[in-house]
Request: fold
Amino acid sequence: MATLFERVFKGSDEMLAEAEKALAGFNDSDPVSYPDTAYYLGCLYAFTGSKNQTVGELRKSMEWIRSQMTREKRTQDIFTSGIATACAAEVIEVCKYINNPQPYEGTLFLGNMSDADVRELGVPLVTGDIPGFVLFIGSAPSDEKAAELIRSYQRKSIYVFLVGGIVEQADRAGIALGHKNRVFPVGPTITAAAHVVSVAVRVALIFGNVTPGDYEKVREYTFDRVNAVVNAFEPVDDLTVACGAGAISLGFPVVTNDDNDMWRVPKSLIVQPDIDKFADTSVEARGIKLIMSAVDIPVAFATAFEGEIIRKGDMYLEADGSRKDCFELVRTADFDQIEDGRITVIGPEVDDIPEGTKINLGTVVEVCGKKMQPDFEPVFERKFHQWLNCIEGCMHTGQRDMIRLRLSKNCVASGFKLKHLGDVLYNQIKSDYGSVVDKCQVTIYTEPEKVTELRKTANEFYDKRDARLESLSDESAEQFYACIMCQSFSPSHVCIVTPERLGLCGAVSWLDAKATYELNENGPCRIVGKGGLIDERVGKWQDVNDIVRQLSNGALENVSLYSIMEDPMTSCGCFECICGIEPFSNGVVIVNRECVEMTPLGMTFSEMASMTGGGVQTPGFMGHGKHFIASKKFMAADGGIARIVWMPKALKDTVGEKLNKTAKELYGIDNFVEMIGDETVTDDPSVLLEWLGEKGHPVLELEPLM
Ligand code: SF4
Ligand code: ZN
Reply:
């Protein structure tokens, strides 16, 4: 029987030969690329730094691939061969894209992931909402087993990639596939595994600021920070064995049920004959820390269900704040008013509600604790959305009195009641905020008159909070906060969060940072003083610089809070938006992550993002949160919001009202948003400039930026 070494080398040779065959029919000048990525062929770019934009360049890269498959120093060579095998697989895959930008169209398979998808995956990896990912290769013993296995990972909130027969098995067994469901059907054969390796190495380039071509740094990054594991079903062929060596070399253990005495490698190549134990074995082998706390409800509860959509036809009941009175409220109460753990439903429960009903729904969570502060209430309340969405069969959008919540027929048939919403909220508040919440009780109102009455009270609370938020300013705040949550992926990145500038992910406001700090002084948020004002205009303080230097381990010396030209804040990669200078108009273009259109900079979001991430300062480009756009501090030192000349229409809709208000206050301009171009106006900078002139855009009066 062949040894493990022999099989790796055989597999490498086979993949190399296949790649040569795939290239044979093309001319050197034929262009090659994957759609929607600024990282070329991700694996080859990461490992060699070469961009491979033509078949001719690919042929050169084939020489490098071959050079990695030598057999002199056996132990080392199987690993370099393994990575080279993945690169050869990437060559085979990209050949499918020559002459056909969407080779997988009309199939279940998604092929190469776009940069936007990698980023969307990167953010929850950073925050720990996704503790890791698994790649399945081959076919499970049956459709049911395939579905069971996938669900076992979903329940652990682990992101699932599928390659081979398991894709069709999952589809037949009714598993919802796609990015939203965190199950990614990559491709039909082992060569598609290259797309998964490409994701892992692009995370290193995007979030870790690893230089393309720094082979060892890429490996080090995936080894330390990307929690991935491979599950390969028997029979495992030589090609898969060779790719597996590559996976192990990147730090990803391989678990298989293909029993073979020849190839056990401690901690890295593990034989687990019982596939029901794949998930547990994998989690243990990679040391993945699971995060979701267990809550006792009749359906599953995991972040894998966050993106689940419940359509009208699948819906049992709906609470829709735009049609019926609904609200959600967290409020601080006195100690003796709360019975810890008490969940009450006032009004009809699911059993008394006929299928297809639109209900009124008011949710009141009362908390108390010696360290509880009213400032934390909105922080908890905004988490409802995420928590309730993790319930399998429950969809939630919005907040305050503009919510929508749907329960699916399956969910209700499993025995889920409205009371269980309360269980989830109670459980999550106690587990996430237990250090400030001593007691918590939840009351769910479905009685229509009661909800209508309480909605009014809730609105009084919201108004009071808004007034408090509006009164907060950078000037009046005693301190700022630094957030280093993203350092697990972007080691030198530090966000400075102020009342008027939220974190670039959009998820951490000054109040959030304050709550995070007070919940755990050694957690990701730290207090930053405002001592040693250096320059008020650009927003520089000695205290801020000191903490940035300390938290970035010396990588950053100076940061200004209000300028994108002079020492701008760094970006980790999970920014909601990027702004970049538009030289024709002397303004800036802002583009949000969801936007796929071309901008007047001649770059898409992805292309701009590739210049902005990785925790380095890039004057002229800056990542930021959506709600920073309407802030008086947005680029305040560089001319402020008057610099904004172009934004996607959807982004204008999101921030328009507040932006108009700020423009009115700062410059006395009405309807400022109508002076900002968008994709329906043009993506041509000279046309835009003319259009701005017609609109009388204030940027035309400003000094040049450069
Ligand atoms: Fe990451 Fe900054 Fe958001 Fe913190 S505030 S989670 S560091 S992007
Ligand atoms: Zn980040």
User: Anything to note?
Assistant: The domain at 4-286 is CATH 3.40.50.2030 (Rossmann fold). The mean pLDDT is 92. The CA atoms of residues 109 and 187 lie 5 Å apart.
